[in-house]
Design a protein that fits this description.
The complex is a heterodimer. By secondary structure, chain A is an alpha/beta fold. In chain A, the strands form two sheets. In chain A, strands 6-7-8-3-9-10 form a six-stranded mixed beta sheet, sandwiched between helices. In chain A, strands 2-1-4-5 form a four-stranded antiparallel beta sheet, covered by helices on one side. In chain A, helix 6 crosses helix 7 and helix 6 runs parallel beside helix 8. The relative contact order of chain A is 0.17. The N terminus of chain A is likely disordered. Chain B folds into two domains: about 60 residues, no CATH class; about 290 residues, MetI-like fold (Orthogonal Bundle). The longest helix of chain B has about 35 residues. Chain B is globular, with a radius of gyration of 27 Å. Chain B starts with about 20 loop residues before the first helix and ends with a helix. The mean pLDDT of chain B is about 90. Classes of the chains: A alpha/beta, B mainly alpha. At the A-B interface, helix 5, strand 6 and helix 6 of A face helix 11 and helix 12 of B.
Chain lengths: ~280, ~375
């Protein structure tokens, strides 16, 4: 489906952007892409409970610098909970979690330090409805990074241009379409110059015709070398962009593999079942 | 009928709405006479209006006594009408006392002082509420800090070497306004803090807030005022003489802040969780998150509830009679019961007080509706 929409756009009047995205041939070489060996996120025997319910069971995962990881799995499998642990929107109870070399504990100073370096894009955008698009983008740089206002605005406009909506800068989020709002949310995160970007089902709340504009922005972002951890059901995106695909079910990581292997030759029965369920129609 | 052009979309043309349901007749048809029951209710309503409104108008306006003089004017008006009529003569003669209380009612050449304070107050409010006036923030901050001193200096007079008006001699509408405005302005920040405290992760702060709110919400205002006036002084040596008005102000402020806190807490609960999470994810600390993201939205949601508590407070100020203060209502009663006016002015006194209360409360309600509408179109979610 993703492929189809992208193809359609190619014929639209955006030849340069389309050329950049002529990716299928690149897909194979991408796997060969030399990855930095520096680990930026490490989940080590991570466990989490909601009351008596064991949501995350002994999660082990290392994300290297510049790596793009797609996490998929049935709903309720703990994917969102896991990436929300990475910037401490959720607290884990057992195991260690290192982000950018910082061990996440209850220390609020450390948590804030991590959150400054980790950008997050939510399913429901969570833009601030009482602030303009530009103010949404400059608020955190001004107050957290102490960037002067003029400079923060200049940087924000740059990022809004990158997500292709600079002309909406002075509007309020409520005046934008879902796809535009999600692109603003991406720009807002990027304004903090994060080292890692987390995406929590960024296209699940969008109308079908708006999904591709958000995925395009994410693909562009991937091409800049950003470290990305993406929870998504967009398997086309996973195939094109991911260095590794992580499959989760019932709170545990069932399979981690490179996308070609993952889709064409899944090892685990649960993975096979999941793929057959989502890819058959 | 529709010619199809190959390769082009064909849209149905738009038609205008049917005329039968527009215009005054259409409105009356749909709203007043749409069913037998509605016809009946409409007729009953019309009959009630016919029976009440014309008599009231002739009581209040046509047959009323409007001249400036003494009670004989009102008595003549009553005789001419053959029944009791409004005695505006009394309001005109006693206006200073009803509006400004005992002290200024007697020292009428000092009355410019409360009038000056009121004009400055009205100017500040007008400045803050009018759209597109510059320096709103500075004006608000400046008046929050200096206006209370300014008002006290002129109303009391001691600081400026004017004739001293002891606070016990304040009264009338002036006192009503002083109590209501102080209560409203002082209760808002305390209420915000208490509402935040109630949601706080810090157990001590949370417990204190809950106890504070439940305590003040649990006691009736009359009890609170009574405690402030009678029981509170028992805890202090006899020489310590707290000002009666100050005690009422403190009691009402604390009482009011509990209600404001609950109004705001409702809005905090209603705010989508994602707002706080997004602020967290951007690395904003607690106070930045609260000041820039949570409170602006929560206060907007709670405007109707907050204004509602303000209006209640405005009317409840008349309960200060319990501690012997003469607000607008008591001042009206007291003057209407004076020997000079007894028997001709009592209803008029209450109608006049009600009219003033109504003017101010409906202005507050209208402003809140206006504000809601404005914020709604600007920041639609």
């Amino acid at each position: 489906m993703v492929k189809a929409t992208i193809k359609k756009e190619k014929s639209a009047a955006k030849p340069r952007a389309a050329a950049k995205r002529k990716a299928p041939a690149k897909a194979k070489t991408k796997i060969m892409r030399k990855l930095n060996t520096e680990v930026v996120v490490e989940l080590d025997h991570l466990n989490k409970w909601y009351g008596q319910f064991h949501v995350l069971k002994d999660i082990n995962l290392k994300v290297r610098k510049g790596e793009r990881i797609v996490i998929c799995g049935p709903s309720g499998s703990g994917k969102s909970t896991m990436i929300r642990c990475i910037n401490r929107l959720e607290e884990h109870q057992e195991g260690d979690l290192f982000v950018d070399g910082i061990l996440l504990t209850n220390d609020t100073k450390k948590i804030d330090e991590v959150r400054r370096e980790v950008g997050m894009v939510f399913q429901h955008f969570n833009l601030f409805p009482h602030l303009t698009v530009l103010e949404n983008c400059t608020l955190a740089p001004i107050w957290v990074r102490k960037t002067p206002k003029a400079e923060a605005e200049r940087a924000a406009m740059e990022y809004l241009e990158r997500v292709k909506i600079p002309e909406q800068a002075l509007k309020y989020p409520g005046q934008l379409s879902g796809g535009q709002q999600q692109r603003v949310a991406i720009a807002r995160s990027l304004c903090m110059n994060p080292k890692i970007m987390l995406f929590d089902e960024p296209t699940s709340a969008l109308d079908p015709e708006m999904i591709s504009e958000v995925l395009d922005v994410m693909i562009d972002l991937a091409n800049t070398g950003m470290t990305m951890v993406v929870v998504t059901h967009e398997m086309g995106f996973a195939r094109k962009v991911a260095d590794r695909v992580v499959f989760m079910d019932a709170g545990e990581i069932v399979e981690i593999n490179e996308p070609e292997e993952f889709f064409n030759n899944p090892k685990n029965d649960r993975t096979k079942l999941f793929l057959s369920q989502i890819l058959t129609h | 009928m529709f010619k199809t052009v190959p390769g082009k979309f064909n849209f149905l043309p738009a038609r205008s709405a049917p005329t039968a349901n527009s215009g005054i007749i259409g409105w009356a048809k749909t709203n007043l006479f749409s069913s037998p029951l509605n016809v009946l209710l409409t007729l009953i309503g019309m009959y009630l209006i016919y029976k009440t409104i014309p008599p009231f108008i002739s009581w209040a306006i046509i047959d009323a006594s409007w001249g400036y003089g003494d009670r004989t004017l009102c008595e003549q008006a009553n005789e001419a009408a053959g029944r009791s009529t409004a005695c505006w003569t009394y309001v005109r003669v006693r206006a200073e006392q009803i509006l400004f209380g005992p002290f200024y009612g007697q020292n009428t050449d000092e009355i410019w002082r409360p009038i000056l304070v009121f004009i400055v107050f009205a100017a500040i409010i007008a400045w803050l509420l009018t759209e597109r006036t510059p320096f709103k923030g500075y004006v608000a901050a400046f008046s929050l800090i200096f206006f209370p001193f300014f008002a006290f200096a002129f109303l009391h007079g001691e600081w400026l070497g004017l004739k001293i008006a002891p606070t016990g001699q304040w009264g009338g509408f002036m006192l009503t306004l002083v109590i209501a405005v102080t209560g409203i302005v002082a209760a808002l920040p305390i209420g915000i803090l208490m509402a935040l405290g109630r949601q706080s992760d810090l157990p001590v702060f949370k417990a204190l807030s809950v106890i504070f709110i439940e305590f003040w919400r649990g006691a009736p205002l009359v009890t609170v005022l009574f405690m402030a006036s009678v029981i509170f002084p028992l805890f202090f040596p006899a020489e310590v003489d707290f000002d009666k008005v100050a005690r009422a102000l403190i009691a009402i402020t604390l009482f009011q802040s509990a209600y404001t806190a609950e109004a705001i807490r409702g809005a905090l609960d209603a705010l989508p969780k994602g707002q706080g999470e997004a602020a967290d994810a951007l690395g904003l600390g607690y106070w930045h998150k609260t000041l820039f993201i949570i409170l602006p939205q929560a206060l907007k949601i709670s405007i109707p509830a907050i204004v509602n508590t303000f209006i209640e407070l405005f009317k409840d100020t008349s309960l200060v009679y319990i501690i012997g203060l003469l607000d607008l209502l008591q001042m009206s009663r007291a003057t209407a019961n004076s020997l000079e006016w007894r028997g001709v002015s009592d209803i008029t006194a209450f109608v006049f007080a009600a009219l003033i209360f109504f003017m101010f409360t409906s202005a507050m309600a209208a402003y809140s509706r206006n504000l809601e509408r404005k914020l709604d179109t600007e920041h639609k979610n």
